[in-house]
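Reopening: Root cap still failing for me.
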Amino acid sequence: MLMAIVEATPPGVAKSLSYARCSIKKYKYCYNLKLVCPKSCPHQCTVDCVSCKSICVGYKSSPPPQTPTHSPPSYSPTSPPTKTPTPPTASTPPPSPPPPTTTPPPSPPATTPTPPTTSTPPPSPPTSSPSPPPPSPTTPTPPTTSSPPPSIPSSPTPPSPTPPSPSPPPSTPSPTPPAATPPPSFPTPSPPISSSPPPTPKTVKCKNKKYPQCYNMEQVCPSSCPGGCEVDCVTCKPVCRCDRPGAVCQDPRFIGGDGITFYFHGKKDHDFCLLSDSNLHINAHFIGKRNQNMKRDFTWVQSIAILFDKHQLFIGAQKTATWKDSIDRLTLTFDNEPITLTEVEGARWQSTSSPSVFVNRLADTNSVMVEVEGSLRITAEVVPITKEDSRIHNYGITNEDSFAHLDLGFKFFTLSNEVSGVLGQTYRPDYVSRVNIGATMPVIGGDKNFETSNLFATDCAVARFGGSDGEASLESLELPSLSCASGIDGQGVVCKR
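Support: Ran it again with your exact input. Result attached.
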């Protein structure tokens, strides 16, 4: 058994090994224990002493300013000379005009019908106003006389200054050569317009008040985190969601409580038991789309039901065709009563029952953290399948349905040694994973053991919940791709379809 583990390098471990150690003495079972860094770590890793696992650590990365985009317009100096007839003075190579490509000036000549107007060269004053890049034709000439700013482009007549009078004669001969240039002039201004600043990088904060030195401190997600990041409140550094225990990225996958990644493909429109313990039961409802080239469905978790004591908690994603981040698509109920939250980050709701149930908004819309006192904590976010996701994975998503679904993160505070379920079984101390770690897509079996008759039923074959009928019925099941695993600062898992 040991030899097999040594030969098959587990996923996420680099061949060229680097290590990290736990330096907190109070965690005796982990203190000073050398752990291998995952190969996906972009920089380095640290050890989460609570779970005794290595975790990738990212660094703050501020977006590189890209102001040099205006440099290309340097070509402008050449174009002004071509129109030298009227703006010889403008020929002075003031680098300022470059941003607005002077090529446009030829376009005015194209409108030879009004030679005076063609004298638009006077518009050179507009050089002061970079805002009208389209009318940049006038901008080429950097003459300080900005008195006739933008107005000049609109009406050539304003260039009443004496220069216009001499310009008319030359304008007639010059128009013909410029006529060819106008087309290029228009394309040139467009590049500057297209050069928009890069999107603002996503920022995250530590929301755990137990770490005052890091609480509410804004961190920038590293550029190497395409799936977003979270803050490790212990180290106060942003960590890629895909590089930490319990991460769920790319294809649907689980990272179990034992740290092993596995896939569980289910059936669309079916319900499955994710976890079942003596006083906690979690089911998930899957939506999906049939792939004609495969024998299974593409599936995602649309909603979950959490049963504890005599209470029921529901978290779901509403169906939506056109996705907008500003519209809240979360549905929350407690004991069949809707939970209403103001659409503002930090909004909070608390039950009047015991144990207490807390719901906090992590963003204005579509993201919440739910905690059942003394039992578990869940982070839930509603996300759509994007066109890019559909293109990469051949999902075949149409405009009729964006397949909005839940990205989930679980942390369990108390689990028994008999816990079961697709995810729950990986937290048993005697659990031995049956997946083929060496496979490209290690899939977990037992499809008939986890299906339930409905979202709030506890009748799966492996049910352990003592608050309802413990009879387990065998149903057919296949699980969707989901990912769950231990999280930092406590026992837990993260799941995503």
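The longest strand covers residues 297-308. If you still see a failure, please send the error message rather than a screenshot.
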